[in-house]
Design a protein that fits this description.
single chain, 274 residues, alpha/beta, Rossmann fold, UDP-galactose 4-epimerase, domain 1, 2 domains, 7-stranded parallel sheet, two-stranded antiparallel ribbon, 12 helices, 13 strands, binds NADP nicotinamide-adenine-dinucleotide phosphate
Length: 274
Protein backbone atom coordinates (compact mmCIF):
# COMPACT_ATOMS: atom_id res chain seq x y z
CA UNK A 1 0.00 0.00 0.00
CA UNK A 2 1.19 3.55 -0.77
CA UNK A 3 -0.01 6.67 1.08
CA UNK A 4 0.44 10.28 -0.06
CA UNK A 5 0.63 12.83 2.75
CA UNK A 6 -0.09 16.46 1.90
CA UNK A 7 1.00 19.12 4.41
CA UNK A 8 3.73 16.56 5.12
CA UNK A 9 6.29 19.09 6.36
CA UNK A 10 3.78 20.73 8.73
CA UNK A 11 2.83 20.02 12.34
CA UNK A 12 0.10 17.52 11.57
CA UNK A 13 1.62 16.00 8.44
CA UNK A 14 4.84 15.09 10.24
CA UNK A 15 2.79 13.32 12.86
CA UNK A 16 0.71 11.51 10.25
CA UNK A 17 3.95 10.17 8.76
CA UNK A 18 5.33 9.11 12.16
CA UNK A 19 2.12 7.35 13.12
CA UNK A 20 1.80 5.59 9.74
CA UNK A 21 5.32 4.21 10.20
CA UNK A 22 4.52 3.18 13.79
CA UNK A 23 1.37 1.33 12.71
CA UNK A 24 2.86 -0.33 9.63
CA UNK A 25 6.62 -0.01 9.04
CA UNK A 26 6.21 -1.59 5.59
CA UNK A 27 3.80 1.03 4.21
CA UNK A 28 5.19 3.09 1.33
CA UNK A 29 5.00 6.82 2.00
CA UNK A 30 5.14 9.77 -0.34
CA UNK A 31 5.19 13.36 0.95
CA UNK A 32 3.83 16.29 -1.05
CA UNK A 33 5.81 19.50 -0.58
CA UNK A 34 6.68 22.61 -2.57
CA UNK A 35 10.24 22.25 -1.32
CA UNK A 36 12.41 19.64 -3.06
CA UNK A 37 14.98 19.96 -0.22
CA UNK A 38 12.47 19.19 2.57
CA UNK A 39 13.87 17.05 5.39
CA UNK A 40 11.64 14.03 5.92
CA UNK A 41 12.11 10.68 7.68
CA UNK A 42 14.29 8.16 5.90
CA UNK A 43 12.46 6.17 3.25
CA UNK A 44 9.76 8.78 2.64
CA UNK A 45 9.65 9.68 -1.04
CA UNK A 46 9.29 13.38 -1.91
CA UNK A 47 6.77 14.52 -4.51
CA UNK A 48 7.19 18.17 -5.41
CA UNK A 49 3.86 19.82 -6.12
CA UNK A 50 1.59 22.70 -5.24
CA UNK A 51 -2.06 22.25 -4.26
CA UNK A 52 -2.80 25.69 -5.72
CA UNK A 53 -1.68 24.37 -9.15
CA UNK A 54 -3.34 20.95 -9.57
CA UNK A 55 -1.48 20.30 -12.83
CA UNK A 56 1.65 19.79 -10.69
CA UNK A 57 0.04 16.88 -8.81
CA UNK A 58 -0.25 14.15 -11.45
CA UNK A 59 3.02 12.41 -10.53
CA UNK A 60 2.30 12.73 -6.81
CA UNK A 61 -0.95 10.71 -7.10
CA UNK A 62 0.57 7.93 -9.25
CA UNK A 63 0.09 4.44 -7.70
CA UNK A 64 -1.30 5.93 -4.48
CA UNK A 65 -4.01 4.06 -2.55
CA UNK A 66 -4.79 6.60 0.17
CA UNK A 67 -4.23 10.33 0.69
CA UNK A 68 -4.09 12.55 3.75
CA UNK A 69 -5.26 15.99 2.56
CA UNK A 70 -4.93 19.52 3.86
CA UNK A 71 -7.62 21.85 2.50
CA UNK A 72 -5.57 25.03 2.04
CA UNK A 73 -2.67 26.48 0.09
CA UNK A 74 -0.14 29.06 1.17
CA UNK A 75 1.04 30.60 4.41
CA UNK A 76 -2.30 32.33 5.13
CA UNK A 77 -4.22 29.02 4.86
CA UNK A 78 -6.25 30.19 1.85
CA UNK A 79 -8.94 27.64 0.92
CA UNK A 80 -8.24 25.53 -2.18
CA UNK A 81 -10.02 26.91 -5.22
CA UNK A 82 -9.65 24.11 -7.78
CA UNK A 83 -10.63 21.17 -5.60
CA UNK A 84 -12.61 19.43 -8.37
CA UNK A 85 -9.45 19.01 -10.43
CA UNK A 86 -7.47 17.74 -7.43
CA UNK A 87 -10.12 15.11 -6.63
CA UNK A 88 -10.53 14.14 -10.31
CA UNK A 89 -6.76 13.55 -10.55
CA UNK A 90 -6.77 11.45 -7.38
CA UNK A 91 -9.70 9.36 -8.63
CA UNK A 92 -8.12 8.86 -12.03
CA UNK A 93 -4.94 7.62 -10.31
CA UNK A 94 -6.95 5.00 -8.39
CA UNK A 95 -6.95 6.57 -4.91
CA UNK A 96 -9.53 4.69 -2.80
CA UNK A 97 -9.41 6.36 0.60
CA UNK A 98 -8.74 9.81 2.09
CA UNK A 99 -8.58 11.75 5.31
CA UNK A 100 -8.97 15.54 5.36
CA UNK A 101 -7.56 17.82 8.04
CA UNK A 102 -10.32 20.31 8.80
CA UNK A 103 -9.49 24.00 8.94
CA UNK A 104 -11.44 27.04 9.98
CA UNK A 105 -14.29 26.31 7.57
CA UNK A 106 -15.42 23.50 5.31
CA UNK A 107 -14.34 24.23 1.77
CA UNK A 108 -14.50 23.06 -1.82
CA UNK A 109 -12.20 20.07 -1.20
CA UNK A 110 -14.63 18.57 1.30
CA UNK A 111 -17.50 19.12 -1.16
CA UNK A 112 -15.61 17.57 -4.08
CA UNK A 113 -14.62 14.51 -2.04
CA UNK A 114 -18.17 14.04 -0.74
CA UNK A 115 -19.52 14.18 -4.29
CA UNK A 116 -16.90 11.77 -5.64
CA UNK A 117 -16.10 8.09 -5.19
CA UNK A 118 -13.19 8.17 -2.71
CA UNK A 119 -13.98 6.90 0.83
CA UNK A 120 -13.36 10.01 2.94
CA UNK A 121 -13.06 10.75 6.64
CA UNK A 122 -13.03 14.34 7.87
CA UNK A 123 -10.77 15.05 10.85
CA UNK A 124 -11.79 17.99 13.03
CA UNK A 125 -9.20 18.55 15.73
CA UNK A 126 -9.66 21.28 18.33
CA UNK A 127 -6.77 23.56 19.38
CA UNK A 128 -3.34 21.92 19.03
CA UNK A 129 -1.17 21.58 22.17
CA UNK A 130 1.75 22.57 19.96
CA UNK A 131 0.35 26.12 19.48
CA UNK A 132 2.12 26.93 22.75
CA UNK A 133 5.44 26.60 20.89
CA UNK A 134 4.52 29.45 18.58
CA UNK A 135 2.64 31.59 21.12
CA UNK A 136 4.48 31.04 24.37
CA UNK A 137 8.01 29.67 23.94
CA UNK A 138 9.62 33.11 23.37
CA UNK A 139 7.98 34.75 26.40
CA UNK A 140 8.69 31.79 28.67
CA UNK A 141 12.35 31.72 27.68
CA UNK A 142 12.89 35.48 28.01
CA UNK A 143 10.50 36.49 30.84
CA UNK A 144 9.21 33.36 32.53
CA UNK A 145 5.66 34.63 32.23
CA UNK A 146 2.65 34.48 29.94
CA UNK A 147 0.53 37.57 29.29
CA UNK A 148 -2.85 36.75 27.76
CA UNK A 149 -6.52 37.72 28.03
CA UNK A 150 -9.38 35.41 29.07
CA UNK A 151 -7.80 33.88 32.19
CA UNK A 152 -10.81 31.60 32.77
CA UNK A 153 -10.54 29.96 29.38
CA UNK A 154 -10.39 26.16 29.19
CA UNK A 155 -9.39 24.09 26.18
CA UNK A 156 -9.70 20.40 25.34
CA UNK A 157 -6.54 20.80 23.21
CA UNK A 158 -5.15 17.82 21.34
CA UNK A 159 -1.64 16.36 20.94
CA UNK A 160 -0.78 16.42 17.19
CA UNK A 161 0.44 12.82 17.48
CA UNK A 162 -3.15 11.81 18.21
CA UNK A 163 -4.38 13.53 15.06
CA UNK A 164 -1.66 11.57 13.25
CA UNK A 165 -2.67 8.33 14.97
CA UNK A 166 -6.32 8.67 13.97
CA UNK A 167 -5.38 9.55 10.39
CA UNK A 168 -2.96 6.62 10.17
CA UNK A 169 -5.51 4.12 11.47
CA UNK A 170 -8.18 5.27 9.00
CA UNK A 171 -5.79 5.51 6.03
CA UNK A 172 -4.38 2.03 6.59
CA UNK A 173 -7.42 0.14 7.81
CA UNK A 174 -10.45 2.04 6.47
CA UNK A 175 -13.79 2.54 8.20
CA UNK A 176 -15.38 5.88 9.13
CA UNK A 177 -16.27 6.63 5.50
CA UNK A 178 -18.27 9.86 5.33
CA UNK A 179 -17.81 10.54 9.05
CA UNK A 180 -16.56 13.74 10.65
CA UNK A 181 -14.36 12.87 13.62
CA UNK A 182 -14.09 15.53 16.30
CA UNK A 183 -10.70 15.07 17.97
CA UNK A 184 -9.82 16.36 21.45
CA UNK A 185 -7.28 15.62 24.13
CA UNK A 186 -8.16 13.73 27.35
CA UNK A 187 -8.92 16.77 29.55
CA UNK A 188 -10.21 20.33 29.36
CA UNK A 189 -7.32 22.36 30.76
CA UNK A 190 -7.74 25.88 32.20
CA UNK A 191 -5.12 28.33 30.94
CA UNK A 192 -3.53 28.79 34.39
CA UNK A 193 -3.08 25.03 34.72
CA UNK A 194 -1.57 24.92 31.23
CA UNK A 195 1.06 27.43 32.36
CA UNK A 196 1.69 25.44 35.56
CA UNK A 197 2.09 22.17 33.59
CA UNK A 198 4.66 23.78 31.30
CA UNK A 199 6.51 25.19 34.33
CA UNK A 200 6.66 21.73 35.86
CA UNK A 201 8.01 20.27 32.61
CA UNK A 202 10.86 22.78 32.46
CA UNK A 203 11.49 22.86 36.23
CA UNK A 204 10.74 26.55 36.65
CA UNK A 205 7.76 28.36 38.16
CA UNK A 206 5.99 30.47 35.51
CA UNK A 207 3.77 33.48 36.04
CA UNK A 208 0.42 34.07 34.34
CA UNK A 209 -0.62 37.70 33.88
CA UNK A 210 -4.17 38.27 32.69
CA UNK A 211 -4.53 41.09 30.15
CA UNK A 212 -7.67 43.00 29.31
CA UNK A 213 -8.85 42.54 25.73
CA UNK A 214 -7.58 46.06 24.90
CA UNK A 215 -4.13 45.28 26.35
CA UNK A 216 -4.04 42.02 24.38
CA UNK A 217 -4.88 43.82 21.12
CA UNK A 218 -2.04 46.28 21.76
CA UNK A 219 0.38 43.46 22.52
CA UNK A 220 -0.58 41.40 19.45
CA UNK A 221 -0.45 44.45 17.22
CA UNK A 222 3.04 45.38 18.54
CA UNK A 223 4.09 41.80 17.71
CA UNK A 224 3.14 42.44 14.07
CA UNK A 225 -0.24 40.72 13.96
CA UNK A 226 -2.73 42.09 11.43
CA UNK A 227 -6.35 43.06 12.22
CA UNK A 228 -7.80 39.84 10.72
CA UNK A 229 -5.64 37.62 12.88
CA UNK A 230 -6.37 39.73 15.97
CA UNK A 231 -10.11 39.43 15.32
CA UNK A 232 -9.78 35.66 14.78
CA UNK A 233 -7.78 35.18 17.98
CA UNK A 234 -10.12 37.34 20.04
CA UNK A 235 -13.07 35.25 18.90
CA UNK A 236 -11.28 31.89 19.22
CA UNK A 237 -9.88 32.59 22.70
CA UNK A 238 -12.68 34.74 24.10
CA UNK A 239 -15.56 32.77 22.74
CA UNK A 240 -14.25 29.21 22.46
CA UNK A 241 -17.13 27.07 21.15
CA UNK A 242 -18.44 24.21 23.34
CA UNK A 243 -16.68 21.66 21.13
CA UNK A 244 -13.33 23.34 21.84
CA UNK A 245 -13.67 22.77 25.57
CA UNK A 246 -15.56 19.47 25.76
CA UNK A 247 -13.61 16.23 25.88
CA UNK A 248 -14.76 13.48 23.49
CA UNK A 249 -13.44 9.92 23.29
CA UNK A 250 -12.81 9.71 19.54
CA UNK A 251 -9.04 9.21 19.73
CA UNK A 252 -9.36 6.17 22.00
CA UNK A 253 -12.38 4.81 20.11
CA UNK A 254 -10.52 4.89 16.79
CA UNK A 255 -6.95 4.05 17.84
CA UNK A 256 -7.57 1.86 20.90
CA UNK A 257 -5.28 3.94 23.11
CA UNK A 258 -6.11 6.94 25.32
CA UNK A 259 -5.48 10.43 24.03
CA UNK A 260 -2.11 11.90 25.10
CA UNK A 261 -2.19 14.55 27.86
CA UNK A 262 -0.74 18.07 27.85
CA UNK A 263 1.72 16.95 30.54
CA UNK A 264 3.04 14.34 28.10
CA UNK A 265 3.31 16.91 25.31
CA UNK A 266 5.06 19.39 27.63
CA UNK A 267 7.59 16.79 28.81
CA UNK A 268 8.39 15.85 25.19
CA UNK A 269 8.93 19.51 24.19
CA UNK A 270 10.42 20.98 27.39
CA UNK A 271 13.72 21.87 25.71
CA UNK A 272 11.99 24.35 23.37
CA UNK A 273 10.81 26.38 26.40
CA UNK A 274 14.10 26.45 28.38
N1 LIG B 1 -3.34 25.13 15.15
C1 LIG B 1 -4.53 24.76 15.62
O1 LIG B 1 -4.84 24.86 16.81
C2 LIG B 1 -5.53 24.13 14.66
C3 LIG B 1 -6.69 23.56 15.18
C4 LIG B 1 -7.61 22.95 14.30
C5 LIG B 1 -7.35 22.93 12.94
N2 LIG B 1 -6.19 23.51 12.47
C6 LIG B 1 -5.93 23.47 11.02
O2 LIG B 1 -4.72 22.79 10.76
C7 LIG B 1 -4.23 23.25 9.49
C8 LIG B 1 -2.74 23.57 9.61
O3 LIG B 1 -2.05 22.38 9.80
P1 LIG B 1 -0.54 22.37 10.28
O4 LIG B 1 -0.46 23.19 11.55
O5 LIG B 1 -0.08 20.98 10.30
O6 LIG B 1 0.16 23.21 9.12
P2 LIG B 1 1.57 23.93 9.13
O7 LIG B 1 2.46 23.37 10.20
O8 LIG B 1 1.33 25.41 9.08
O9 LIG B 1 2.19 23.46 7.73
C9 LIG B 1 1.61 23.86 6.52
C10 LIG B 1 1.79 22.72 5.53
O10 LIG B 1 1.01 23.02 4.37
C11 LIG B 1 1.81 22.77 3.23
N3 LIG B 1 1.37 23.68 2.17
C12 LIG B 1 1.07 24.99 2.28
N4 LIG B 1 0.70 25.48 1.11
C13 LIG B 1 0.80 24.47 0.20
C14 LIG B 1 0.56 24.38 -1.18
N5 LIG B 1 0.19 25.45 -1.91
N6 LIG B 1 0.74 23.18 -1.78
C15 LIG B 1 1.16 22.11 -1.08
N7 LIG B 1 1.39 22.14 0.25
C16 LIG B 1 1.22 23.30 0.88
C17 LIG B 1 3.23 23.06 3.66
O11 LIG B 1 4.09 22.31 2.82
P3 LIG B 1 5.44 22.87 2.15
O12 LIG B 1 5.75 24.20 2.77
O13 LIG B 1 6.46 21.81 2.49
O14 LIG B 1 5.13 22.95 0.70
C18 LIG B 1 3.22 22.53 5.09
O15 LIG B 1 3.51 21.15 5.10
C19 LIG B 1 -5.08 24.45 9.09
O16 LIG B 1 -6.06 24.01 8.18
C20 LIG B 1 -5.72 24.86 10.40
O17 LIG B 1 -6.95 25.54 10.22
C21 LIG B 1 -5.28 24.10 13.29
Amino acid sequence: MRVLITGATGTVGRNVIEQLIALDPTVRLRALTRNPEAALPEGVEIAVGDLASPETLTEAFKDVDAVHFINFAGEQYAPLTDADTIVALAEAAGVRRATVLGGRAEGLLEQALTAGGIETTFLHPVEFMSNTLMWWAGAIKSEGRIREPFGDRVSAMIHPADIGAVAAKVLLEGGHDGETLLLTGPEAVPIKEKVAILGEAIGRELEFVELTVEEAHEKWSSEGMGPDMIAFLTEALGNTPEEGKTVVGTVEAVTGRPARSFAEWAAEHAEAFR
